[in-house]
Design brief:
With 396 residues, the protein is of the alpha+beta class. The protein contains nine helices and 19 strands. It is 20% helix and 32% strand. The mean pLDDT is 97.
Length: 396
C-alpha cells in the first residue's frame, strides 16, 4: 500500500482532484489542476516545485568510497571533482544496464547516489574487500525539484544568495529556512533547474520557504504527467519505458547495454576496470550495438488522416504513452517506439525509437503503428537526433 512522502501534507492539500499514482511505494501526484498543461507551462515559462522524494538515495563514505563508485559506474571517478555531479548508468557483468542515476561527490571520500530502483544490495555485493560504508537514506532524505526559467530566482530568494556560479551538474551546501540542505544543479525536465536534498523531518519548512520565494515568479506544484512530457521533449530516458533493468528482464531481448539506449557517451573504456567493462568492449569490437535509441518525429498529417477515415477530428492524448508500439521499416517490423507524446513547446508528436543501425540514421523514414477506433494503421515518421528540445538556459 502506498504511503505519503515527507511532503505529503503539502502536496495532498494542493491535489484537490485526488489524482494519485504510485512511485516506489509512495503517493505521487499525477496532476494538481484539471489538466497538466498548466503545470507543464510552469516548468517551461515560470517555476515549478516537484516532489521527487521517492527516488532511492544512498550515502557512500570511507577510505575506499571512490574505489566502490569507480567499480560500479561506467564513468571515471577520477574525473568527478568535489561538488560536481555525474549522471551515469551501471551495468551487470554482461554489460547490461542495471539502472541509471546521479552521483554527487560531496567530499574526497563522500558520495551521494540516487537511483530509480533499490540498489543497496548491488552496491554491497560490489563492495567486497573495500573499507566503505553504504547507507540507504531513502526515507531520511526528501527531495524537491525546483525547475523552470525562474528556478534560480526562486532559489536565490529562499537562500538569499547568488547561484549564478553553480554550474550545470554542480553541487552546493546551503540553508533554506534555517535548514541545512544540499542542492544540485540537476533535474529531469531539460530546463534550468535544481534539486534540493533535505532532511525528511524538515522537508515541510523547506517547501514552504521555496514556495514563498517563488510566489512572485508564478510558482506552481507540478505532477508526474507534466514532468513526463518535459523529460521526453528533452530526450531523457526512463527505466522500464525506454529500457528494462537487467534486474527485471526475463529475456535477452529485454537486456540493454548503455550503447543501445543512448548512454554510450557515458562509458569510459579508458579506465582499467568496472563491472561490465569486458562485455562492453567486446560489443564495440563486434561493430557496436544491434539496436540504437533514436528520436521519432511522427507526421501529423498521417495522424489526421487516420482519424479522418473514421470521420473524427484528431484527438490525441496529451499525456505520454509509455506502452511500446511497433516501428516498421524494410518491409517488416524493425523495432519499437516508446514514450510517444505531443510536445507543447516543439509542437510535434514525438517519441523514442529502438531501431537497428540501418534504420537508425538521421533522416530515415519509418512507420509507427497507430490505432484509431480499434483499427490499426501506420503513421510515417522521420528518425531525428536527440534531444528534441535543447534549451540553452538549462546550462546557463
Amino acid at each position: 500500500m502506498s504511503v505519503g512522502t515527507a511532503l505529503h501534507p503539502r502536496t495532498s492539500a494542493l491535489n484537490t482532484k485526488l489524482s494519485w499514482g504510485d512511485w516506489s511505494g509512495y503517493f505521487s501526484a499525477q496532476v494538481y489542476a484539471d489538466f497538466h498543461d498548466i503545470e507543464y507551462n510552469a516548468i517551461r515559462e515560470q517555476a515549478a516545485l516537484i516532489d521527487v522524494s521517492p527516488l532511492y538515495k544512498y550515502e557512500v563514505r570511507g577510505p575506499d568510497a571512490a574505489r566502490l563508485v569507480d567499480r560500479v559506474m561506467t564513468r571515471d571517478v577520477a574525473r568527478l571533482a568535489v561538488d560536481r555531479v555525474f549522471y551515469t548508468p551501471w551495468c551487470n557483468e554482461d554489460g547490461k544496464v542495471v539502472d541509471d542515476g546521479t552521483v554527487t561527490r560531496r567530499g574526497a571520500d563522500e558520495f551521494f547516489w540516487t537511483a530509480a530502483d533499490p540498489s543497496y544490495r548491488w552496491f554491497e555485493l560490489n563492495a567486497g574487500g573495500l573499507d566503505v560504508e553504504i547507507r540507504d537514506v531513502s526515507d531520511e532524505v526528501a527531495a524537491i525539484a525546483v525547475q523552470g526559467p525562474r528556478a534560480r530566482d526562486v532559489l536565490e530568494g529562499a537562500t538569499r544568495g547568488d547561484w549564478s556560479g553553480v554550474r550545470y551538474f554542480g553541487h552546493r551546501r546551503t540553508e533554506v529556512g534555517g535548514v541545512d540542505v544540499n542542492v544540485t544543479r540537476t533535474g529531469y525536465t531539460g530546463d534550468l533547474g535544481y534539486e534540493v536534498w533535505v532532511p525528511a523531518d524538515a522537508a515541510l519548512e523547506v517547501w514552504d520557504d521555496l514556495w514563498e520565494a517563488g510566489e512572485p515568479h508564478g510558482i506552481r506544484a507540478a505532477g508526474i504527467r507534466a514532468l513526463d512530457v518535459a523529460r521526453v521533449e528533452s530526450g531523457l530516458i526512463l527505466i522500464e519505458a525506454e529500457y528494462t533493468s537487467a534486474r527485471h528482464a526475463v529475456s535477452q531481448e529485454q537486456m540493454y547495454s548503455p550503447f543501445e539506449i543512448g548512454l554510450g557517451r557515458l562509458v569510459d573504456l579508458s579506465k582499467p576496470s568496472f563491472v561490465g567493462r569486458r562485455a562492453l568492449e567486446l560489443e564495440l569490437r563486434r561493430g557496436g550495438p544491434e539496436r540504437r535509441l533514436v528520436g521519432l518525429d511522427l507526421d501529423w498529417l498521417g495522424i489526421e488522416a487516420m482519424f479522418a477515415a473514421h470521420d473524427l477530428p484528431p484527438a490525441v492524448s496529451a499525456a505520454v504513452n509509455r506502452e511500446p508500439v511497433p516501428v516498421y521499416a524494410g518491409g517488416g517490423q524493425a523495432g519499437r517506439a516508446t514514450s510517444v507524446t505531443w510536445g507543447p513547446t516543439i509542437k510535434k508528436m514525438v517519441g523514442f525509437g529502438s531501431l537497428p543501425p540501418q534504420f537508425a540514421r538521421s533522416g530515415a523514414r519509418v512507420g509507427v503503428e497507430w490505432t484509431v477506433e480499434g483499427e490499426r494503421g501506420t503513421v510515417d515518421a522521420t528518425v531525428v537526433d536527440l534531444p528534441f528540445l535543447d534549451l540553452d538556459r538549462k546550462r546557463a
